Amino acid sequence: MVRSGGERSTCSVEDVLQLLRLLYSISIDLGHVRHRHEDEDVSHFRVTPEEFISRKITNKLVQQIQDPVVLASHAVPEWADSLSNKCLMLFPFETRQLYFTCTAFGMSRAIVWLQNQRDATLERSRGPSPRRDDTHEYRVGRIKHERVKVPRSCDMLSWAINVMRFHAKRKSILEIQFSGEEGTGLGPSLEFYALIAAELQRKSLAMWLCDDDFLDDRAREVDIGQVRECLIITTEAMHRR
């Protein structure tokens, strides 16, 4: 680019990315305007979000985050984090979701997730043939499980808050066991989250907009009996596999 005085100016990569961000914002805003005024031609600037996607940068990012050595050594380059946060339009949703999965939950979860993805790919390639374990295959990464006991009480929501405060910064898998009961693992954990979801829907918490004509909170109580029955059926089916 040449200025009026004859001096040649150069644009940095950051300048180009800033321009792309501005154009993307304009296209999104005008898209909302066109949606509200369908009968009017509000602008000639018509660029779809797909046109901002860079296939080369996307492939490069996928190569980086699918390498277990890179993840295990925390060697993901800085440009990957910078572009995935500041220039979302350069990547399709699937790639951004993949990057989030591989970087947001710790090294152990990322490596285990990649190994599970690889196993799923191998299963699809084998077809219906029985699976044979490869004794020469070396696998790394194992997610730690932590178990928390909670009582069945009317103050279930307070217990959930305390559990999440304690466990929020930990990278292990949380399992719930109810006090005085033998059940552990996925079934009680799913039931615990279903109970908390029901508690969060109480009208007395004033968390939601509500125009129902219920006279008391009892009429708004959520019946999770059906949910619990579905959880039991799902758990039994998983144990039969």
Write the SSE topology.
Blueprint: H1 13-36, H2 55-65, H3 68-72, H4 78-86, H5 93-103, H6 107-126, E1 145-150, H7 156-167, E2 173-178, H8 186-200, H9 225-240
Helix pairs in contact: 2-5, 8-9
- Taking the alpha carbons of the first and last residues, their distance comes to 65 Å
Instruction: State which percent range the strand residues make up.
Output: under 5%
Q: Note the total helix count.
A: 9
Radius of gyration: 26 Å
Task: Tell me, briefly, the overall form.
Answer: extended
Mean model confidence by pLDDT: 76
Largest sheet report: 2 strands, parallel
Helix content: 40-55%
Poorly predicted spans: 230-235, 237-241
Order of helices and strands: HHHHHHEHEHH
Number of strand elements: 2
Structural class: mainly alpha
Q: Order of strands in the sheet with the most strands?
A: 1-2
Provide an overview of this structure.
Strand 1 (145-150), helix 7 and strand 2 (173-178) form a beta-alpha-beta unit. With 241 residues, the protein is mostly helical. The protein has helices spanning 13-36, 55-65, 68-72, 78-86, 93-103, 107-126, 156-167, 186-200, 225-240; strands spanning 145-150, 173-178. Helices cover 51% and strands 5% of the residues. The protein has nine helices and two strands; from the N terminus they run H-H-H-H-H-H-E-H-E-H-H. The radius of gyration is 26 Å and the shape is extended. A two-stranded parallel sheet has the order 1-2.
